[in-house]
């Protein structure tokens, strides 16, 4: 890839991850980030400069006039506010793209500003509940879908430029129009985040002063509510901008909860069975997809007697078969009451090889 000049407005988990990937791809790429607050640059921006990911931190947006591409990586309402400022600054073939979780509103704003030829909406379908450059990774986007929403006037060569940049970051580009994007993400991401937060708040408001619910909360509750730890400002912005689609799916969800409540009242056993069975079948049919380093771990669990030497025996067996271990330790939780040995590997191949080997030595192996 020829070296390019890339601008970032908003430099947290996603901006930082894209910057790391682009710098790793070609250290000659020049990366600049906008320092928007009146205070001194954030720890993230300073850290990225020290890590030699960022070349320039600037308080002056006119410095972005040299950019080949600008990534808007702030909360969605803030991203929109930069379009009008950038319009008079950018060079004629500069691509302005965003990574925001909502596409319709920014698309509309770009068209109103006659930025059709420069703006291409973007949304990497990867991330986590973490925030900030500190949590970023050059591999965050690896094997993740990356939605692109061009305008009707996006020049084909500009779309191809962004598409190949996405591919070079090991993500999978998919072209979807802004309206369809907002319906899909409302159903699979935005409403689930609202549900997770509502569930946590329900428990918080129902707990007793000794916090027994909080103490006993485990397994399933933690799985389903992980995303409730996400950035409040980011989700506030998403709700304020994808309101129509979110309300549409929230209504369906509320209806389904009401149906369950009615089935409880009427003790409708067959409804309840089918409710769980249908959900389980669909959940089990979801494609297994690697979505990036942060979300993916290769691990197995095995029954061992919780005594001195048990870990060493397994570790030695793996080492003599040239299988590298990333992490190993006994864990106790509700799912494995007796305690199991959890072994984490760096890669899928090692994980599969270890599983076969340990089964051969008559260990009971659980893969998840
Ligand atoms: N967190 C995730 O998993 C994903 C987030 N997104 C989208 O990416 C965008 C960024 O999210 P994250 O990187 O996760 O959040 P983050 O909180 O890690 O980073 C956001 C950055 O934007 C900065 N910022 C806030 N207001 C600003 C303003 N007015 N001007 C310039 N910078 C400003 C913050 O200081 C922070 O550094 C959001 O639009 C979000 O919808 C997209 C995919 C996944
Ligand atoms: O952590 C998770 O599971 C997420 O859902 C991350 C995420 C958050 C927002 C997006 O627009 C896309 C992905």
TrEMBL record:
<dbReference type="Pfam" id="PF20463">
    <property type="entry name" value="PDH_C"/>
</dbReference>
<dbReference type="InterPro" id="IPR036291">
    <property type="entry name" value="NAD(P)-bd_dom_sf"/>
</dbReference>
<comment type="pathway">
    <text>Amino-acid biosynthesis; L-tyrosine biosynthesis; (4-hydroxyphenyl)pyruvate from prephenate (NAD(+) route): step 1/1.</text>
</comment>
<dbReference type="GO" id="GO:0004665">
    <property type="term" value="F:prephenate dehydrogenase (NADP+) activity"/>
</dbReference>
<comment type="similarity">
    <text>Belongs to the prephenate/arogenate dehydrogenase family.</text>
</comment>
<keyword id="KW-0560">Oxidoreductase</keyword>
<keyword id="KW-0028">Amino-acid biosynthesis</keyword>
<protein>
    <recommendedName>
        <fullName>Prephenate dehydrogenase</fullName>
        <ecNumber>1.3.1.12</ecNumber>
    </recommendedName>
</protein>
<dbReference type="InterPro" id="IPR046825">
    <property type="entry name" value="PDH_C"/>
</dbReference>
<dbReference type="InterPro" id="IPR008927">
    <property type="entry name" value="6-PGluconate_DH-like_C_sf"/>
</dbReference>
<dbReference type="Pfam" id="PF02153">
    <property type="entry name" value="PDH_N"/>
</dbReference>
<dbReference type="InterPro" id="IPR003099">
    <property type="entry name" value="Prephen_DH"/>
</dbReference>
<keyword id="KW-0520">NAD</keyword>
<dbReference type="GO" id="GO:0070403">
    <property type="term" value="F:NAD+ binding"/>
</dbReference>
<dbReference type="GO" id="GO:0008977">
    <property type="term" value="F:prephenate dehydrogenase (NAD+) activity"/>
</dbReference>
<dbReference type="GO" id="GO:0006571">
    <property type="term" value="P:tyrosine biosynthetic process"/>
</dbReference>
<dbReference type="InterPro" id="IPR050812">
    <property type="entry name" value="Preph/Arog_dehydrog"/>
</dbReference>
<keyword id="KW-0827">Tyrosine biosynthesis</keyword>
<dbReference type="InterPro" id="IPR046826">
    <property type="entry name" value="PDH_N"/>
</dbReference>
<keyword id="KW-0057">Aromatic amino acid biosynthesis</keyword>
<feature type="domain" description="Prephenate/arogenate dehydrogenase">
    <location>
        <begin position="4"/>
        <end position="294"/>
    </location>
</feature>
């Amino acid at each position: 890839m020829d070296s390019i000049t890339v601008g970032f407005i908003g430099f947290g988990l996603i901006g930082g991850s894209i910057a790391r990937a682009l710098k790793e791809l070609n250290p000659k790429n020049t990366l600049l980030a906008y320092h928007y607050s009146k205070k001194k640059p954030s720890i993230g921006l300073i850290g990225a400069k020290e890590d030699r990911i960022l070349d320039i931190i600037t308080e002056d947006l006119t410095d972005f006039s040299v950019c080949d591409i600008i990534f808007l990586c702030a909360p969605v309402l803030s991203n929109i506010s930069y379009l009008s400022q950038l319009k008079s600054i950018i060079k004629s073939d500069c691509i302005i793209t965003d990574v925001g979780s909502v596409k319709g509103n920014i698309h509309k704003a770009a068209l109103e500003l006659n930025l059709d030829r420069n703006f291409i909406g973007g949304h990497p379908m990867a991330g986590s509940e973490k925030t900030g450059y500190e949590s970023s990774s050059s591999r965050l986007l690896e094997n993740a879908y990356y939605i692109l929403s061009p305008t009707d006037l996006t020049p084909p060569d500009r779309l191809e430029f962004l598409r190949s940049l996405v591919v070079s970051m090991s993500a999978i580009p998919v072209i979807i129009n802004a309206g369809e994007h907002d319906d899909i993400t409302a159903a699979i991401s935005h409403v689930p985040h609202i549900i997770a937060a509502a569930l946590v708040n329900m428990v918080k408001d129902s707990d007793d002063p000794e916090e027994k619910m909080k103490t006993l909360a485990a397994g399933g509750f933690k799985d389903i509510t992980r995303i409730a730890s996400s950035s409040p400002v980011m989700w506030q912005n998403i709700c304020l901008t994808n309101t129509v689609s979110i309300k549409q799916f929230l209504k369906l969800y509320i209806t389904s909860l009401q149906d369950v409540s009615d089935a409880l009242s009427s003790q409708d056993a067959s409804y309840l069975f089918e409710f769980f069975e249908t959900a389980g079948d669909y959940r089990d049919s979801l494609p297994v997809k690697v979505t990036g380093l942060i979300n993916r771990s290769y691990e197995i669990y095995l029954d061992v007697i919780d005594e001195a030497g048990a870990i060493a025996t397994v570790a030695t067996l793996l080492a003599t078969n040239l299988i590298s271990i990333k992490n190993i330790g006994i864990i106790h939780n509700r799912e494995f009451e007796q305690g199991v040995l959890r072994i984490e590997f760096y890669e899928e191949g090692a994980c599969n090889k270890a599983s076969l080997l340990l089964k051969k030595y008559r260990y009971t192996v659980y893969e998840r």
